[in-house]
Design goal:
This protein has four helices and eight strands, in the order αββββαββββαα. The protein is an alpha+beta fold. It has one domain: Nucleoside Triphosphate Pyrophosphohydrolase (Alpha-Beta Complex). Strands 1, 2, 3, 4, 5, 6, 7 and 8 form an eight-stranded mixed sheet that branches. The radius of gyration is 15 Å and the shape is globular.
């Protein structure tokens, strides 16, 4: 956590020129069914949550996470969950990113939120390789190989059970 605090104190912690920089992401859920949406990330070769980098001038991590989620899923009704009026950071994870020309290997300090949709059937991948899958929490935990995301999904599981009821 010390690295994240140091990073946050920098003039532009979102700058992709830093070998450790901030990103923002979202676990998108359908609270009616208890399913979560995962996206295939080609560079990471893994099923992960949606999210990414700030655009120039952006500094609010929740807004960045929501914009990225909209761009990557086509869902335009995304709101913070469980309280739409009060977005809560659910996890900060340090993610290793492999090199890809011209970028060297680097790390993201990923700020993670939960977003809900009422129209999961409208999810559309932004590109053909960036497939999307709606899954129950246990299936999502099994499918993703990312330990940080698995922890976040395990934290989310009891809340999801409460949301969908018995």
């Amino acid at each position: 956590m010390t690295r994240v605090r140091t990073l946050a104190a920098m003039p532009d912690p979102w700058s992709r020129s830093l070998l450790l920089h901030l990103t923002a992401s979202a676990i998108v859920i359908d609270p009616r069914t208890g399913r979560v949406l995962l996206r295939w990330h080609e560079r990471q070769q893994a099923w992960l949550q949606v999210g990414g980098h700030a655009d120039p001038g952006e500094t609010d991590p929740f807004r960045i996470a929501r914009r990225e989620a909209r761009e990557e899923t086509g869902l335009d009704d995304l709101s913070a969950w469980p309280d739409s009026a009060s977005p809560r950071l659910i996890q900060v994870a340090i993610v290793s990113v492999p090199p890809r020309d011209p970028e060297p290997a680097h790390h993201h300090a990923d700020l993670r939120y939960v977003l809900a949709t009422g129209r999961p059937e409208r999810a559309v991948p932004e590109t053909v390789p960036a497939q999307l899958r709606w899954l129950g929490i246990d299936a999502a935990i099994s499918l993703t190989g990312d330990p940080g995301l698995q922890v976040a999904l395990r934290r989310l599981a009891p809340l999801m059970t409460t949301a969908i009821g018995p």
